[in-house]
Design a protein that fits this description.
The complex is a heterodimer of chains A (151) and B (130).
Chain A lengths: L1 H16 L5 E2 L1 E3 L7 E2 L17 E16 L4 E4 L2 E3 L1 H10 L4 E11 L2 H4 L7 E14 H13 L2
Parallel strand pairs in A: 2-6
Antiparallel strand pairs in A: 4-5, 4-8, 7-8
Chain B lengths: L1 H10 L3 E3 L8 E3 L13 E22 L2 E11 L2 H13 L3 E15 L2 E15 L4
Classes of the chains: A alpha+beta (151), B alpha+beta (130).
Amino acid sequence: VKARAALLTLSLLVAALAGCVGSRSYVVADSLKYPVSLSSGVRGPDGKLLAISDTEKVGTFHLDYTSCRMLWTIVPLKSGTRDISDDVNEQVPRKNGEAIVNLSVESSATAWNLMTIIGILPDCSKVRVRGDIVARSSVLEAPVAAAEATP
Amino acid sequence: MAGLLSGCLGHFQPATAGFEGITQPVMLGSVDRIGGGAPLSFTKKGQFEGESKAIYSRSTSTSGNIETTTTRDMTDNLQIALDAYAALQASGPDSEIRVTTLRPWSKGFMVIMKSTVLVAGDVVTVGGAK
């Protein structure tokens, strides 16, 4: 019995040390209506790269969520895979934007990362997603120019 | 544990993956340009994988009347951007990265806490609009 207990303890430690602890999630965007770039680059309707000066920031995209797993990450409890499409499709048009650039993803620990007891109990992490909602300068200027041209 | 919870969580830096300043796209999702439409033709040139990371550890030892606490705090959010920039430069001005995996992960074990954000994808060169 002692040998089995020792083997079980060793297995748990190996699982924990092998990285099978913590809480991970996957950020996906399967049904976007707008382009999302993690860099400052985005292409225009003709497929050509837009210069940074061709776009203007019209808002900030923001999304925060907590992902939780337990039993050495085997069991996803919350936000195992997070599709950000709905958030993008809702926030971009609200700011009259056309795309998101400079999307960044931040992962930070919570107290649960220490309370999990080598991966057995629920383990949670915080994820913060931010980005710049942008529109082409020419599109933003068009209504202004039209208004000025009206007598 | 209490010391770690009170000290570690207050100072622990997050890991952040972002590529601000890089002028070639690093795209998430299937919309490859403003306005959408039929996907642009592209040729796969290679793969990219990088990870930003933040690690915090704290240990305490006592020798006689002297208690020594050692903390290590390491954050690397830059290397992933440098690697992406190098991959895009090597593939030419029409290249971009199409992200296939974006995985934030935070874990704690005894006296160590680690957060990472993995970014993996295909490096492609993009042709004209169809």
